[in-house]
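From the thread on structure requests for the teaching lab: each student submitted one protein with a one-line request. Submission from student K.M.:

"Model Sugar phosphate isomerase/epimerase from Candidatus Acutalibacter pullistercoris, tokens only."
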Amino acid sequence: MQFSVSLYSFYPAIQRGEIAPVDCIAKAKELGFEAVEAVDFVNFGDCATQEERLQRAKELRAAADAAGLPFSSLAVAADLLNGSGGDTAKEIQRVKEYVDVAVVLGAPRMRHDITQGYKGDRAKSYDALVPQLAQAVREITQYAQEKGVLTMTENHGFFSQDSQRVEKLYNAVDHPNFALLCDMGNFLCADEDPALAVARVAPYAKYVHAKDFIWKSYKDADPGEGAFRTRAGNFLRGTIVGHGNVPVQQCLHILKAAGFDGAMALEFEGVEDPFTALRIGLCNLRRYWAQA
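Reply posted by the TA:
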């Protein structure tokens, strides 16, 4: 098992000016991680052109090489229905350009979002959109296969988040270079039991996000700053792995039983100090995996 960390986990400290994005790589090494995951808006958000992104990727790769850490993956936002002004071909091309960024990073995988769905008068069910979405995903992964990069989607973005939905998309794409990124915490955003959801998608998972949330019912008092609502209106707040309501060890047991032994990235998005949260979270994650 390779224990990685999403550089998104450092984002609050980056925003406060406590650490530069490139320095998060050395910090990850210091905290005991074995790899890092790059994220588009964290590491390339200020890049206006593809040339700038490729140059930034070279700089990040140099920093990672100096720290002795590989990139486990690259995470990219995408909307294959509404992105790039609703021009699907343009959005597909934009995502393909990030495949080239992954190549420069040396990342063997790239995760991209699918869509947040049509809204208002254009609303359609997920099932109705699967053929269109699968075609776009297949075009991206065919390009990525030529570059030696596995593409994945994650249960993320509320619309393409349920285990049944991502399973349907995976089967519809039906391409050997396309897999699922299983985020054990994100299923709660769709009000789905994480253990049952992980059990459904474990056979298709080639990468994992270990994440924890504190869950509160809609009927409870609004916890305020730091929390957000699930699809059904319940409350979630990110927290240290092992401190919340996600059955992390059970999810790891399910993944191990399914034969998963690849790379796993810890993703922290809580209000706690990220350096402390990542140190504790990694310690817990290693112990849970050993005991699973």
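TA comment: The first strand starts at residue 2 and ends at 6. The chain has a mean pLDDT of 97.
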